[in-house]
Please model this.
Amino acid sequence: MLDQRRVEELSSGRDRGAGIRVVVGETTGFAHTADLSERGLLAAAQAAATVAREGGGGVREIALGPLTDHPTLATTLPKDVDKARKIELMNLADDAARSEGSSITQVSVALGDSSRRFVVANSEGVFAADHQVRTRFNVTCIAKGDGGMQTGYRPIAGTRGFELLSGEAVAEAARGAARQAITKLDARPAPSGDLPVVLAGGSGGILFHEACGHGLEADAILKQASVYAGKVGQQVASPLVTLVDDGTVEGEWGYLALDDEGRPGARNVLIENGVLTDYMWDYLRSRKEGRLSSGNGRRQSYQHLPMVRMTNTYLLAGESDADEIVAQTPYGVYVAQLGGGQVNTATGDFVFGMTAAFMIEDGKITAPLRDCNLIGNGPDVLQRVDAVATDFSMTPGTCGKNGQSVPVGCGQATMRLTGVTIGGAAA
Amino acid sequence: MSALIEQAVRILESVKGSEEIEVYVASGVDTEVQSYQGEIEELTNATSTGIGIRVLRDATSGAQVGTAWAGSLDDEAVMDALREARDNARFATEDEFIAFARPDGVPAVSLELTSPGVANTSLDDKIAMAIELERLVRSGDPRIRQVDSANYSDYVAEAAIVSTTGIKASYARTGAFVSVEAIANDGSDDQTGWGLSAGRSPSDLDVEKAASDAIRRATRMLGAVKPASFKTTAVFDPRTAATLFSIIGGALSGEAVVRGRSFFANRVGEMVAASNFTLLDDPTDPRHFAASVFDGEGLACRRNVLIEGGQLKAFVYDTVSARRAGTASTGSAVRGGIAGSPSAGCRALQLIAGDLDQAEIFRRVGNGIFVESLIGVHSGVNPVSGDFSVGVTGLMIRDGQLAEPVREITVASTLQRMLLDVVYVGNDLEWLPGSAAGQTVAIENIAVSGT
Model:
């Protein structure tokens, strides 16, 4: 991490271990160990098997085929890049951010890369390996003005090697973060209440991640803990909504050749023209339903149990023109960047935070607004999509669920909601 | 525990020339049981160890520090990490303020943070608690339609920090928790409620209370409506108030201050909060779940008064942020596991209790909103600018009493304003897991956004 031009934290680490899962009926036993000797693995297996107390013993032979391996897409592995070169890029970003204006008082740059190699073998004969190399580069800027401090943020992240980061790309991200902070110095409190909202392409995809993505994960569905349970075949969204979860988008932050249960990543259509077509599945949940996993079984590390998770979730582009959508909105809010969000899948209520937003007045983007959350109810908001543009893009994010974090992508084109509650502090 | 220290000390023997080494070793045993429909749904048994090594290198204009970690204590992994930390240090910026902690003469308090109950309770008894918790929720009210997860979990954790600068500290803690989410339905809509109980031993846990909390919170939200936007006084319950205190604690970190990321910077001595607001970070109070004998650099934890009677008194510092600020560490280094470097942070916040109970606060507020759960704290609070906007569920307060439930709304203000707008502080301090305890707190001038 580079903070105020100081290389402050240069850290590297290594972890390896095994997680062992035993499934007996509806019960799962799990143990993990960093001891990969035969003795260590057997001890973990025994711990995982404590749930199988009624089991009758005996030995079952399992035939594993040859290993199906998936090499990384990365062309320049992180370990092959000189640390000095990484620091040079971070300094370049710092310079670019500060060049945007003297009100930038703080610049913090973080570069991280990871190389994750795993093998999955199970008693159904799966024997597969993947090598996932990821690289990310984040720039955070603080601008100071008469009214206090404001922040700007831009991420670059991909399931790629160091080739993801060019001098040009990091400088552009840095300038974007700086401009965002400077613009917000003049921001006024966001309005409070229900208004039309235009979401810019890219990070707006978080809306779908929260408004319905989590609610379409089969673990919530099978427990009847989602507002979307039992709704396959029904119109759950505006006909403009076609939503896809797609682990196969090469190089995106949520890309995976293989999920953490050994299933290939897949492109799954969740909502087609507003009609709910399917949920997302992992091994356990699909087994209960007698179907195949959709390649959505993911885990943070060998120390975690897999569960149903999204990969890259995106809304297919529409046919409107992005500028026209704004021009045809007399009064509302334009959200240029979203932060994170959260959902209660059982009630469908969700929030997402706007970190760069403006008023729309008479069809024009006007005053910048201070950060706030937007709140809505998933099934209701999905019906309110009334325009989707052609300018599709994706953005990286980190999705947290039950204490586990995994990298995901979100995507959409500029789109409009006829109304959503803006949680601002304006009177 | 001494075994961990011995292992850590052995690594220090590899020190070369004028460099300094700090070793942090942690190990833990975790058990987790999830019950569903009266059966074990998931049972996890896990043992983990890890090491974080920092190497400090003398340089012409200060020092350089490099960090590395490994998820194992094998000799090979440890030596790799040491080599990598040394190499990383070469690329760090030379900085006159970089240093490791040195013993500062503050004696460590004696705290009993472990209980043999975690190790001595049989797995069957732990499983039985999760199953019983689920049963109590399902059978406690006919409107409970589903229990998404009923969990029991516990841990035994040990850690040691040693350094060539004279630090030698170790500590252990245990914890046990039950938590449950209930889904209630009244024929039309679903509502959810969480219940939890935490302690240092399974015998500290109140399974019945966790169950009844979840039921009460879920069922009283049934029929919730989305009101029109209005400005009001918000009464935060102990859990949501604790979240608020944690956010404020973030801005009281000396690290945020020296990095120019705190709206409290340069304001020591000013009135930053209402006069009934006294906030401490006190890990030496054994009642706090986050109580600790040593901080993340191995210095003794101590009681730090941050805001007293509304006046900003002090920030919390670790060694490096203190040096940058020209002061001494307050024993407030925190670290996020083996992979993280220490940084300054609040560990065990508590607001000094007021003298009103919750019902009296409702009476005095008259009309307002009672906030029972928060959603989107990470996306709606900007700790640098102070902008605060979070999704909430709760109940209206009318004529001094709880009235109809409300949902799909946000409450908004700025953190700076909210501190000054605190009108009542409750006497109902609850020791909650996490970095802050909480009690009922009423705050004026809150914008509620609805339809």
Observations:
- The mean pLDDT of chain A is 93.
- The longest helix of chain A spans residues 167-184.
- Chain A touches chain B through 83 residues (CB under 8 Å).
